[in-house]
Every structure is written in C-alpha cells, then in structure tokens.
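Task: sequence design from structure.
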C-alpha cells in the first residue's frame, strides 16, 4: 500500500466501483481475506447501498483478528484498539481489558456478539468468519506448527 493516506484512500476507492446496472435490487456475497480495521469495507458497503444493492453479505477467509501481529505486517496497527474486533469488544464490554480468549472461540455467545457488533458497524446484511479449526484443517498442518497469534493469541513453534 502507498505511504500517503490520500493515495491509500484513492487506491481503496478504485478497488470497487459499483455498477448500478448490475447490482440494483440484487443481493451480493463478497469475499475477503480479513477485516483489520474495517474502514475500507465500511466505505465499500456504503457505496454499494448508495448504488442500489439490496443486501451485502460478507464472508472472511480467516478468523477475526483479535491481536495485532507481532511478527509480520499482516495486521500491524499502532494500537490493538484499531482492530475492528477490539472496537466491537470495547463497545460490548465497556473496557480495553476484556478476556480475549473467549472472543476467539466461535462457540461462545460473546464471540457471536462481537461478530454482530462488527456486522452492524460495517452495515453488512450478514457476516461470517472462517474458524481456526477449519482453517487449520484446510492448511493440513498441525495447529502447533502454525502461527495463529493474530486470531487467538497462541504462541507457536514456528514458521513466522
């Protein structure tokens, strides 16, 4: 990505130019690798609705990013609170020191509430993330050989 914020915003805007002749009154399912801050996605969703799309469903290929990456620039943020997950968790709990582990487990009600908070903030019709077990299964390596820190804060034996 370019270093200039103005240039980054222009590049992001050019990634998705809605065609009302195709999307008006339709439902769309969009796929992305991750949601880091959600800024681009929120802008894109707004543009799609402004051009007449009826529903925007989002499917994310990785689990929710709950921890900034300590090893690569994948989810690097100045602060953990910039992550879409952390903003949703702060809205739910009212504090910055929530027990992050329970928000990493898709079987918990707080995880579901966090995802619903992100969905609402981004004005999506529906939102689903990949789970860590399904991602690990798709990769085909044992979890202990993978870095999952961004998703669950786990240490790893690893390859980062």
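Answer:
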């Amino acid at each position: 990505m370019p270093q200039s914020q103005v240039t980054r915003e222009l590049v992001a805007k050019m990634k998705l130019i809605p065609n009302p002749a195709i999307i008006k009154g339709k439902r769309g399912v969009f796929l992305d690798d991750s949601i880091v801050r959600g800024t681009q996605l929120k802008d894109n969703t707004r543009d799609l609705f402004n051009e007449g799309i009826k529903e925007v469903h989002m499917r994310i290929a990785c689990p929710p990013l709950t921890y900034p990456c300590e090893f690569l620039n994948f989810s690097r943020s100045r602060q953990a609170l910039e992550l879409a997950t952390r903003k949703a968790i702060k809205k739910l709990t009212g504090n910055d020191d929530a027990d992050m582990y329970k928000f990493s487990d898709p079987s918990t009600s707080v995880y579901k509430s966090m995802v619903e908070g992100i969905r609402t903030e981004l004005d999506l019709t529906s939102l689903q993330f990949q789970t860590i077990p399904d991602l690990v299964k798709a990769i085909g390596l044992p979890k202990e050989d993978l870095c999952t820190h961004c998703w669950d804060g786990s240490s790893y034996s690893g390859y980062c």
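The CA atoms of residues 88 and 117 lie 5 Å apart.
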